Amino acid sequence: MSKVRLTTFQIFCISVLFWEGSSLVSIRHATKQDHWLALLMAGVIFLPLLLVFMRLLKMNPGKTLFDIITERFGALFGKIVVALYTLYIFIFGALFIRNYTQAVTIIALPETPQLMVSLMCCVSGIYLLKKGLRAIGRFSALFFLVTTAVLIFTLITAVPSLNTDYLYPMLATPFHKMAEEVSAIFSFPFSEAVILLAVLPFAKTNPNTNKAFFGGFAAAYLIILVIALRDILVLGGNAFSSFYFPSFESANFTKIGQFIQRLEALTLGFVLISSILKFTLCVFAGCQGLAKLVNMPDGQVFFAPAALMCSVFSLFIYGQISELQTGLQLIQAVALPFQVLFPIALFICSAIALHMKKSRQINAP
User: How wide is the angle at C-alpha 179 spanned by C-alphas 177 and 182, nearest 5°?
Assistant: First the structure.
Protein backbone atom coordinates (compact mmCIF):
# COMPACT_ATOMS: atom_id res chain seq x y z
CA MET A 1 0.00 0.00 0.00
CA SER A 2 1.38 3.38 -0.96
CA LYS A 3 2.02 5.73 1.89
CA VAL A 4 -0.20 8.74 2.40
CA ARG A 5 0.29 12.09 4.01
CA LEU A 6 -1.29 12.24 7.46
CA THR A 7 -1.12 15.51 9.33
CA THR A 8 0.15 15.65 12.89
CA PHE A 9 -3.39 16.46 14.04
CA GLN A 10 -4.80 13.39 12.24
CA ILE A 11 -2.22 11.11 13.87
CA PHE A 12 -3.12 12.68 17.21
CA CYS A 13 -6.85 12.11 16.63
CA ILE A 14 -6.36 8.49 15.49
CA SER A 15 -4.38 7.81 18.68
CA VAL A 16 -6.95 9.45 20.97
CA LEU A 17 -9.98 7.70 19.47
CA PHE A 18 -8.16 4.36 19.42
CA TRP A 19 -7.47 4.50 23.17
CA GLU A 20 -10.94 5.85 23.94
CA GLY A 21 -12.60 3.04 22.00
CA SER A 22 -12.39 0.49 24.83
CA SER A 23 -12.86 2.79 27.81
CA LEU A 24 -16.65 3.10 27.73
CA VAL A 25 -17.35 -0.60 27.12
CA SER A 26 -15.06 -1.90 29.86
CA ILE A 27 -16.60 -3.85 32.74
CA ARG A 28 -13.59 -3.84 35.10
CA HIS A 29 -14.78 -1.86 38.11
CA ALA A 30 -14.05 -4.15 41.06
CA THR A 31 -12.16 -1.38 42.86
CA LYS A 32 -15.37 0.71 43.10
CA GLN A 33 -14.56 4.32 44.12
CA ASP A 34 -10.82 3.59 43.82
CA HIS A 35 -11.14 2.85 40.10
CA TRP A 36 -9.77 6.28 39.18
CA LEU A 37 -6.68 5.56 41.30
CA ALA A 38 -6.20 2.28 39.43
CA LEU A 39 -6.36 4.27 36.18
CA LEU A 40 -3.73 6.69 37.46
CA MET A 41 -1.35 3.90 38.42
CA ALA A 42 -1.89 1.94 35.20
CA GLY A 43 -1.13 5.03 33.12
CA VAL A 44 2.11 5.70 35.00
CA ILE A 45 3.19 2.07 34.63
CA PHE A 46 2.39 2.16 30.91
CA LEU A 47 4.57 5.21 30.22
CA PRO A 48 7.89 3.28 29.91
CA LEU A 49 6.25 0.87 27.44
CA LEU A 50 4.87 3.80 25.45
CA LEU A 51 8.40 5.19 25.22
CA VAL A 52 9.53 1.79 23.89
CA PHE A 53 6.81 1.97 21.20
CA MET A 54 7.88 5.48 20.26
CA ARG A 55 11.54 4.54 20.16
CA LEU A 56 10.75 1.58 17.89
CA LEU A 57 9.07 3.96 15.42
CA LYS A 58 12.05 6.30 15.54
CA MET A 59 14.72 3.58 15.17
CA ASN A 60 12.85 1.95 12.26
CA PRO A 61 11.48 4.88 10.21
CA GLY A 62 8.87 3.94 7.64
CA LYS A 63 8.73 0.30 8.80
CA THR A 64 5.61 -1.32 10.20
CA LEU A 65 5.57 -3.64 13.18
CA PHE A 66 5.65 -6.64 10.82
CA ASP A 67 8.61 -5.25 8.85
CA ILE A 68 10.54 -4.80 12.08
CA ILE A 69 9.70 -8.33 13.25
CA THR A 70 10.94 -10.04 10.07
CA GLU A 71 14.03 -7.86 9.92
CA ARG A 72 15.07 -8.31 13.56
CA PHE A 73 13.90 -11.88 14.21
CA GLY A 74 14.89 -13.38 10.87
CA ALA A 75 12.82 -14.88 8.08
CA LEU A 76 11.65 -18.10 9.74
CA PHE A 77 11.08 -17.06 13.35
CA GLY A 78 9.89 -13.65 12.15
CA LYS A 79 7.15 -15.24 10.02
CA ILE A 80 6.00 -17.30 13.00
CA VAL A 81 5.81 -14.19 15.20
CA VAL A 82 4.00 -12.25 12.43
CA ALA A 83 1.44 -15.07 12.16
CA LEU A 84 0.88 -15.03 15.92
CA TYR A 85 0.57 -11.24 15.96
CA THR A 86 -1.94 -11.35 13.10
CA LEU A 87 -4.05 -13.92 14.93
CA TYR A 88 -3.86 -11.85 18.12
CA ILE A 89 -4.99 -8.68 16.33
CA PHE A 90 -7.97 -10.38 14.67
CA ILE A 91 -9.05 -12.05 17.93
CA PHE A 92 -8.73 -8.73 19.73
CA GLY A 93 -10.78 -7.01 17.00
CA ALA A 94 -13.50 -9.66 17.32
CA LEU A 95 -13.54 -9.35 21.12
CA PHE A 96 -13.74 -5.58 20.92
CA ILE A 97 -16.61 -5.57 18.43
CA ARG A 98 -18.46 -8.10 20.61
CA ASN A 99 -18.10 -5.86 23.65
CA TYR A 100 -19.44 -2.94 21.61
CA THR A 101 -22.45 -4.85 20.23
CA GLN A 102 -23.15 -6.20 23.71
CA ALA A 103 -23.25 -2.66 25.10
CA VAL A 104 -25.51 -1.41 22.31
CA THR A 105 -28.01 -4.25 22.63
CA ILE A 106 -28.16 -3.98 26.42
CA ILE A 107 -28.38 -0.20 26.63
CA ALA A 108 -30.26 0.96 23.54
CA LEU A 109 -31.42 -1.82 21.19
CA PRO A 110 -32.42 -4.87 23.25
CA GLU A 111 -34.64 -6.29 20.48
CA THR A 112 -32.00 -5.96 17.77
CA PRO A 113 -29.86 -9.04 16.97
CA GLN A 114 -26.21 -8.52 17.77
CA LEU A 115 -25.33 -9.71 14.27
CA MET A 116 -27.06 -6.66 12.76
CA VAL A 117 -25.20 -4.24 15.04
CA SER A 118 -21.93 -6.02 14.33
CA LEU A 119 -22.51 -5.91 10.56
CA MET A 120 -23.30 -2.18 10.73
CA CYS A 121 -19.91 -1.54 12.30
CA CYS A 122 -18.31 -3.99 9.87
CA VAL A 123 -19.73 -2.30 6.75
CA SER A 124 -18.65 1.13 8.02
CA GLY A 125 -15.15 -0.22 8.64
CA ILE A 126 -14.93 -1.80 5.17
CA TYR A 127 -15.99 1.51 3.58
CA LEU A 128 -13.25 3.40 5.42
CA LEU A 129 -10.68 0.73 4.56
CA LYS A 130 -11.55 0.87 0.87
CA LYS A 131 -11.21 4.66 0.92
CA GLY A 132 -7.74 4.33 2.42
CA LEU A 133 -5.73 5.65 5.33
CA ARG A 134 -6.21 9.26 4.27
CA ALA A 135 -9.98 8.85 4.71
CA ILE A 136 -9.41 7.23 8.10
CA GLY A 137 -7.31 10.24 9.11
CA ARG A 138 -9.99 12.71 8.00
CA PHE A 139 -12.70 10.66 9.72
CA SER A 140 -10.68 10.73 12.94
CA ALA A 141 -10.01 14.47 12.78
CA LEU A 142 -13.66 15.33 12.14
CA PHE A 143 -15.19 13.06 14.75
CA PHE A 144 -12.56 13.83 17.36
CA LEU A 145 -13.98 17.36 17.39
CA VAL A 146 -17.53 15.98 17.56
CA THR A 147 -16.79 13.55 20.39
CA THR A 148 -14.88 16.23 22.31
CA ALA A 149 -17.90 18.55 22.09
CA VAL A 150 -20.18 15.71 23.28
CA LEU A 151 -17.84 14.91 26.15
CA ILE A 152 -17.66 18.53 27.31
CA PHE A 153 -21.45 18.87 27.10
CA THR A 154 -22.11 15.69 29.11
CA LEU A 155 -19.53 16.73 31.72
CA ILE A 156 -21.12 20.16 32.14
CA THR A 157 -24.61 18.71 32.47
CA ALA A 158 -23.33 16.21 35.04
CA VAL A 159 -22.04 18.91 37.42
CA PRO A 160 -25.30 19.26 39.43
CA SER A 161 -25.34 15.49 40.01
CA LEU A 162 -21.76 15.19 41.29
CA ASN A 163 -21.25 14.14 44.91
CA THR A 164 -17.67 14.24 46.17
CA ASP A 165 -18.64 12.07 49.18
CA TYR A 166 -18.72 9.13 46.75
CA LEU A 167 -14.91 9.22 46.52
CA TYR A 168 -14.62 8.02 50.12
CA PRO A 169 -13.39 5.86 51.70
CA MET A 170 -10.29 6.23 49.55
CA LEU A 171 -7.76 3.38 49.14
CA ALA A 172 -10.21 0.96 50.76
CA THR A 173 -9.65 -1.68 48.07
CA PRO A 174 -7.53 -4.70 49.09
CA PHE A 175 -4.08 -4.71 47.51
CA HIS A 176 -4.65 -7.83 45.39
CA LYS A 177 -7.83 -6.41 43.86
CA MET A 178 -6.13 -3.10 43.11
CA ALA A 179 -3.18 -4.92 41.52
CA GLU A 180 -5.51 -7.02 39.37
CA GLU A 181 -7.39 -3.98 38.12
CA VAL A 182 -4.21 -1.99 37.44
CA SER A 183 -2.87 -4.95 35.47
CA ALA A 184 -6.13 -5.25 33.53
CA ILE A 185 -6.21 -1.53 32.64
CA PHE A 186 -2.54 -1.65 31.67
CA SER A 187 -3.38 -4.36 29.12
CA PHE A 188 -6.74 -2.96 27.98
CA PRO A 189 -6.91 -0.21 26.83
CA PHE A 190 -3.35 1.16 27.22
CA SER A 191 -1.08 -1.58 25.83
CA GLU A 192 -3.45 -2.20 22.93
CA ALA A 193 -1.52 0.61 21.27
CA VAL A 194 0.98 -1.95 19.97
CA ILE A 195 -1.53 -2.37 17.11
CA LEU A 196 -0.87 1.23 16.04
CA LEU A 197 2.76 0.26 15.30
CA ALA A 198 1.38 -1.59 12.28
CA VAL A 199 -0.60 1.47 11.12
CA LEU A 200 1.27 4.73 11.80
CA PRO A 201 4.32 3.90 9.61
CA PHE A 202 2.01 4.01 6.56
CA ALA A 203 1.94 7.78 7.00
CA LYS A 204 4.65 9.52 4.99
CA THR A 205 7.60 10.63 7.07
CA ASN A 206 6.35 13.09 9.65
CA PRO A 207 8.90 14.32 12.21
CA ASN A 208 6.07 14.94 14.66
CA THR A 209 4.62 11.40 14.58
CA ASN A 210 5.98 10.49 18.01
CA LYS A 211 4.86 13.81 19.49
CA ALA A 212 1.36 13.26 18.12
CA PHE A 213 1.39 9.64 19.37
CA PHE A 214 2.41 10.71 22.87
CA GLY A 215 -0.02 13.64 22.83
CA GLY A 216 -2.81 11.25 21.81
CA PHE A 217 -2.07 9.06 24.81
CA ALA A 218 -1.98 12.06 27.16
CA ALA A 219 -5.33 13.35 25.87
CA ALA A 220 -6.99 9.92 25.89
CA TYR A 221 -5.62 9.23 29.39
CA LEU A 222 -7.09 12.49 30.66
CA ILE A 223 -10.45 11.83 28.98
CA ILE A 224 -10.70 8.26 30.34
CA LEU A 225 -9.78 9.49 33.82
CA VAL A 226 -12.31 12.34 33.74
CA ILE A 227 -15.08 10.01 32.52
CA ALA A 228 -14.30 7.53 35.30
CA LEU A 229 -14.38 10.28 37.94
CA ARG A 230 -17.68 11.59 36.56
CA ASP A 231 -19.23 8.12 36.71
CA ILE A 232 -18.05 7.55 40.28
CA LEU A 233 -19.20 10.98 41.47
CA VAL A 234 -22.64 10.51 39.88
CA LEU A 235 -23.31 6.85 40.74
CA GLY A 236 -21.21 6.16 43.84
CA GLY A 237 -18.67 3.36 44.19
CA ASN A 238 -21.12 0.50 44.82
CA ALA A 239 -23.42 1.38 41.93
CA PHE A 240 -20.42 2.11 39.69
CA SER A 241 -19.12 -1.43 40.22
CA SER A 242 -22.53 -3.08 39.88
CA PHE A 243 -23.28 -1.83 36.35
CA TYR A 244 -21.68 -3.47 33.32
CA PHE A 245 -21.47 -0.12 31.50
CA PRO A 246 -21.55 2.66 34.12
CA SER A 247 -20.86 5.50 31.67
CA PHE A 248 -24.26 4.93 30.08
CA GLU A 249 -25.94 4.76 33.47
CA SER A 250 -24.36 8.00 34.71
CA ALA A 251 -25.47 9.72 31.49
CA ASN A 252 -28.99 8.41 32.13
CA PHE A 253 -28.99 10.00 35.61
CA THR A 254 -27.77 13.33 34.24
CA LYS A 255 -30.42 15.89 33.31
CA ILE A 256 -31.16 19.60 33.36
CA GLY A 257 -34.76 20.18 34.40
CA GLN A 258 -37.29 18.46 32.14
CA PHE A 259 -35.74 19.66 28.91
CA ILE A 260 -32.33 17.97 28.74
CA GLN A 261 -32.25 14.40 30.00
CA ARG A 262 -31.43 10.80 28.98
CA LEU A 263 -28.03 11.76 27.58
CA GLU A 264 -26.99 8.13 27.13
CA ALA A 265 -27.83 8.55 23.42
CA LEU A 266 -24.95 11.04 23.14
CA THR A 267 -22.66 8.64 24.99
CA LEU A 268 -23.72 5.86 22.64
CA GLY A 269 -22.80 8.04 19.66
CA PHE A 270 -19.43 8.74 21.28
CA VAL A 271 -18.81 4.99 21.62
CA LEU A 272 -20.06 4.26 18.09
CA ILE A 273 -17.55 6.60 16.46
CA SER A 274 -14.60 5.37 18.53
CA SER A 275 -15.60 1.74 17.99
CA ILE A 276 -15.84 2.03 14.20
CA LEU A 277 -12.38 3.60 14.07
CA LYS A 278 -10.82 1.06 16.43
CA PHE A 279 -12.33 -1.89 14.58
CA THR A 280 -11.15 -0.42 11.26
CA LEU A 281 -7.58 -0.02 12.53
CA CYS A 282 -7.55 -3.59 13.90
CA VAL A 283 -8.64 -4.99 10.53
CA PHE A 284 -6.15 -2.75 8.71
CA ALA A 285 -3.28 -3.92 10.93
CA GLY A 286 -4.27 -7.59 10.75
CA CYS A 287 -4.49 -7.48 6.95
CA GLN A 288 -0.99 -6.03 6.74
CA GLY A 289 0.17 -9.03 8.75
CA LEU A 290 -1.57 -11.39 6.31
CA ALA A 291 0.07 -9.59 3.39
CA LYS A 292 3.47 -10.00 5.03
CA LEU A 293 2.89 -13.74 5.46
CA VAL A 294 2.03 -14.31 1.79
CA ASN A 295 4.57 -11.78 0.46
CA MET A 296 2.00 -9.39 -1.00
CA PRO A 297 2.70 -5.66 -1.24
CA ASP A 298 -0.39 -4.74 0.78
CA GLY A 299 -3.45 -6.25 2.44
CA GLN A 300 -6.24 -4.49 0.55
CA VAL A 301 -7.55 -7.73 -0.91
CA PHE A 302 -8.14 -9.07 2.62
CA PHE A 303 -10.06 -6.05 4.00
CA ALA A 304 -13.65 -7.18 3.36
CA PRO A 305 -13.19 -10.91 4.16
CA ALA A 306 -11.23 -10.14 7.33
CA ALA A 307 -13.77 -7.59 8.58
CA LEU A 308 -16.66 -10.00 7.94
CA MET A 309 -14.74 -12.83 9.62
CA CYS A 310 -14.15 -10.73 12.75
CA SER A 311 -17.78 -9.61 12.77
CA VAL A 312 -19.16 -13.15 12.60
CA PHE A 313 -16.55 -14.65 14.94
CA SER A 314 -17.38 -11.99 17.55
CA LEU A 315 -20.79 -13.63 18.05
CA PHE A 316 -19.16 -16.86 19.27
CA ILE A 317 -16.26 -15.48 21.30
CA TYR A 318 -18.29 -15.82 24.52
CA GLY A 319 -21.86 -16.64 25.46
CA GLN A 320 -23.53 -14.50 28.12
CA ILE A 321 -22.09 -11.18 29.24
CA SER A 322 -21.41 -12.75 32.64
CA GLU A 323 -18.71 -14.83 30.90
CA LEU A 324 -16.92 -11.75 29.56
CA GLN A 325 -14.75 -11.15 32.63
CA THR A 326 -13.32 -14.67 32.53
CA GLY A 327 -12.61 -14.33 28.83
CA LEU A 328 -10.86 -11.00 29.33
CA GLN A 329 -8.62 -12.47 32.04
CA LEU A 330 -7.59 -15.29 29.72
CA ILE A 331 -6.91 -12.96 26.79
CA GLN A 332 -5.00 -10.59 29.09
CA ALA A 333 -2.58 -13.41 29.95
CA VAL A 334 -2.24 -14.41 26.28
CA ALA A 335 -1.71 -10.78 25.23
CA LEU A 336 1.30 -10.19 27.49
CA PRO A 337 3.94 -11.37 24.98
CA PHE A 338 2.42 -9.30 22.16
CA GLN A 339 1.95 -6.14 24.19
CA VAL A 340 5.12 -6.21 26.29
CA LEU A 341 7.66 -8.99 25.68
CA PHE A 342 7.98 -8.91 21.88
CA PRO A 343 8.09 -5.08 21.67
CA ILE A 344 10.86 -4.97 24.31
CA ALA A 345 12.79 -7.70 22.46
CA LEU A 346 12.39 -5.76 19.19
CA PHE A 347 13.59 -2.62 20.92
CA ILE A 348 16.72 -4.38 22.19
CA CYS A 349 17.43 -5.97 18.80
CA SER A 350 16.93 -2.64 17.01
CA ALA A 351 19.25 -0.85 19.46
CA ILE A 352 21.96 -3.50 18.95
CA ALA A 353 21.59 -3.36 15.15
CA LEU A 354 21.86 0.44 15.10
CA HIS A 355 24.91 0.33 17.38
CA MET A 356 26.61 -2.22 15.13
CA LYS A 357 25.79 -0.16 12.04
CA LYS A 358 27.33 2.95 13.58
CA SER A 359 30.40 0.98 14.62
CA ARG A 360 30.89 -0.29 11.05
CA GLN A 361 30.53 3.24 9.68
CA ILE A 362 33.15 4.56 12.13
CA ASN A 363 35.58 1.74 11.34
CA ALA A 364 35.05 1.91 7.59
CA PRO A 365 38.07 3.27 5.67
Answer: 110
Mean pLDDT of 305-329: 81
Per the model's pLDDT, the better-predicted residue between 155 and 52 turns out to be 52
Please give the mean pLDDT across all residues of the chain: 88
Q: Predicted confidence band at 154 (pLDDT cuts at 50, 70, 90)?
A: confident
Phi first, then psi, for residue 4 (nearest 5°) are -125, 160
Query: pTM for the whole thing?
Result: 0.93
CA distance 280 to 111: 26
- State yes or no: cis peptide before 365, omega within 30 of 0: no
Burial (CB < 10 A; 0-12, 13-18, 19+), residue 120, is middle
**CB atoms < 10 A from the CB of 54, how many?**
17
Query: Left, alpha or beta for 345 (phi > 0: left; psi -120 to 50: alpha)?
Result: alpha
Q: Supply the DSSP string of 113-130, one letter for each residue.
A: -HHHHHHHHHHHHHHHHH
- DSSP, collapsed to helix, strand or coil, labels residue 39 as helix
In contact, 161 and 253? CB cutoff 8 Å? yes
